[in-house]
Amino acid sequence: MKGNEAERYAETFLLHQHLNLLERNYRCRYGEIDLIMRDGEVLVFIEVRLRTNLIFGGAAASITRFKQAKLLRSARHYLAGLRTTPPCRFDAVLLSGSSGSEIEWIKNAFDE
Fold first, then answer.
1. What are the pLDDT digits (tens) for 43-59?
2. How many CB atoms sit inside 10 A of residue 74's CB?
3. Of 4, 64, 70, 78, whose CB neighbour count within 10 A is largest?
4. In the chain, domain spans
5. Per-position DSSP letters for 28-64, written without gaps between them
6. How far apart are CA 46 and CA 42, in angstroms?
7. What are phi and psi of 78, to 5 degrees?
8. How many other β-carbons are positioned within 10 Å of the β-carbon of residue 30?
9. With a threshold of 0.85, does the pTM exceed it?
10. Residue 104 forms beta bridges with which residues?
11. Greatest alpha-carbon span in the chain
């Protein structure tokens, strides 16, 4: 499984959890957000990470403080284009295992 496949796999998983897709691969000058979805009234910015081995700490360890800061700046850019700011959260979908098919969804993976 590669990056785009992992994002589609995560998207399908989240759609089955009743989230609604708003944006895929949102890009701005600050970075990229893999998925932007709505969970009820909450706007969810989602980082998808794939790690097929745990040599460097796995998928969760790859979301560094630097990456979190980029996601936060990108999310603020997205929110600036909205009329009102809804409640928001940052989730992570971690794919692991030899085929990348093991999935872990972490709601509120980090805060501002």
1. 999 999 886 655 555 55
2. 20
3. 78
4. 3-110
5. ETTEEEEEEEEETTEEEEEEEEEES--TTSHHHHTS-
6. 12
7. -60, -45
8. 16
9. yes
10. 94
11. 44
